[in-house]
Amino acid sequence: MQFCLHEMGVVDRVRKLSAHKNLSDDLIDAILEGSGLFAQEVLAPINHLGDIKGATISDGVVSTPEGFAEAYQKFVGGGWASLPFNPLYGGQNLPWVIAAATQEMWISANTSWSLCQILTTGAVELLSEYGTDEQKSLYLGKLISGSWSGTMNLTEPQAGSDLGKLSCRAIPAGDHYNIQGQKIYITYGDHDMAENIIHFVLARTPNSNKGPKGISLFIVPKVLVNPDGTLGALNGLRCLSLEKKLGINASPTCVMSYGDKDRAVGYLVGEEGRGLNAMFTMMNNARLNIGISGLAIAERAYQQAREYAKERCQFGPIIKHPDIRRMLMTMKAQIEAMRAVIFEAALALDYAKKSPGLEQQARIDLLIPMVKAWCTDLGVEITSLAIQIHGGAGFIESTGIAQHFRDARIAPIYEGTNGIQSIDLISRKVLRDEGTAMFSWINDARRVISNGSQNGVSKATQQGLDHLTELTEWMLEISESFANPALAGANAYLRIFGVVAGGIQLSKATELANKPKYKTSEFHNAKLITAKFYSNHILPQISGLRQTIEYGHEEVMKLPENSF
Ligand SMILES: Cc1cc2nc3c(=O)[nH]c(=O)nc-3n(C[C@H](O)[C@H](O)[C@H](O)COP(=O)(O)OP(=O)(O)OC[C@H]3O[C@@H](n4cnc5c(N)ncnc54)[C@H](O)[C@@H]3O)c2cc1C
Description:
By secondary structure, the protein is of the alpha+beta class. The protein is built from 19 helices and twelve strands.
């Protein structure tokens, strides 16, 4: 993290924003050390137990596992919840690049626990952007401090990826709306960690447009809030049940019911019929955090696998075997690539927020689906490799490594499945603006590479950039007549984008680590070898993926449905 932030120049670039020009190295170090200690001493020790015990519901009351609520109180007490937010409402106005580093540590230490504050972060973003002054003064301070938590209520049984199908209703009743309906899979929909839970619920008003344009967004507090900010009566909503899941067992995944007994009071956020727009604006931030979760779990699994490989002896310590080394290097190289790409994305988010402009917004909009999908797919692949390194012990729960694999598996599914992310990348971010944002990113990437001396990594990355350029041109051309080839290749295209983005960062790292002053530095020597590994083992995937897009698209849809 320190290498990315300081040597790769992330902090220097964030300081160019006037909002962060006084950000000191001492402050950054203090935050990284403090959040690392919090992760290590408070969150990590309750991770495994949380997985075994899971969240529970009894007589309608949801409880998180032992230690979760206490950890949350410490988190709020330590001021950790408010790092990147508006100082007007008690935030600390730190850049997202610093928040990204802290998020990685907390999610690494305890993914299930971290989801509560990730969702609250999304709620803060949403309210900051779309709330009225009154709504902000009533809810924002408490959400920013973490005293209250937030949730996102989109999904219904018939409306998952296709949110246009949702049917939850919002009936006008004077100064508010009565919300009626059920939502499923709501993360931290109920729990015992915060004083109040502010639900952000998508619902339809009467006689509204039948599709996505008829959907509006509502604040629905668990406990109603009086005009003076004090807590009032319980609102008419409840958690009906908790889902039993593959992973993130300690995170309560709730079936929520609104207005089935007592009325559930909701307040409109933004304009009627513009709920999906509001939700999707906020999602850049939430998706960045989910991308970080892919990296974070991968890092945790890597650390555990590395230690196991040093201790376990079969024909000598297994770390001596080339196949084990191949797996460790595959993990390490991609983790370092992801981390550097995530810092670049967080920086782009800081620029879009603090120096707003169409170009800055287009850049972050382009990067987000890639970061979300590439990093969460790698999270699953890397945690799977960690199990493989453990051999049979990897399959046994008491080793603890299986939890990371199970916890990582949800991230490619929620916050928009990775299939939906790749469609978003191709359709909305590349084709819609005729490749402008993508070509602008490619040009900047070429500049980064050509600024350095030509090393092996940068040459391989250069080839990757050529593939990405030509493929983007191909996508633009073919999609003028046919939609399917672009959609059939969307997943591979997104992967290529991620692999190239990682290559750019590792060639830059190579350039820095090659400086004569680092000749005897073990850390910088490891950077050089890791980047070279990425160049020889990961970047070559691009040409194969390109082939599947250009030559393999027909077979994707050719088999008649009844032949499956
Ligand atoms: C543990 C957990 C926590 C969750 N937390 C929340 C939460 O807090 N709030 C919330 O609102 N929701 C939450 N969700 C719901 C989650 O966001 C959805 O599950 C997800 O968006 C996918 O919707 P779905 O499950 O209906 O799958 P479907 O939409 O039925 O998708 C099934 C498959 O079809 C693919 N697919 C769908 N449409 C297309 C298309 N047009 N082109 C190509 N492929 C397509 C998908 O990629 C997927 O592979 C959570 C889910 C889980 C499991």
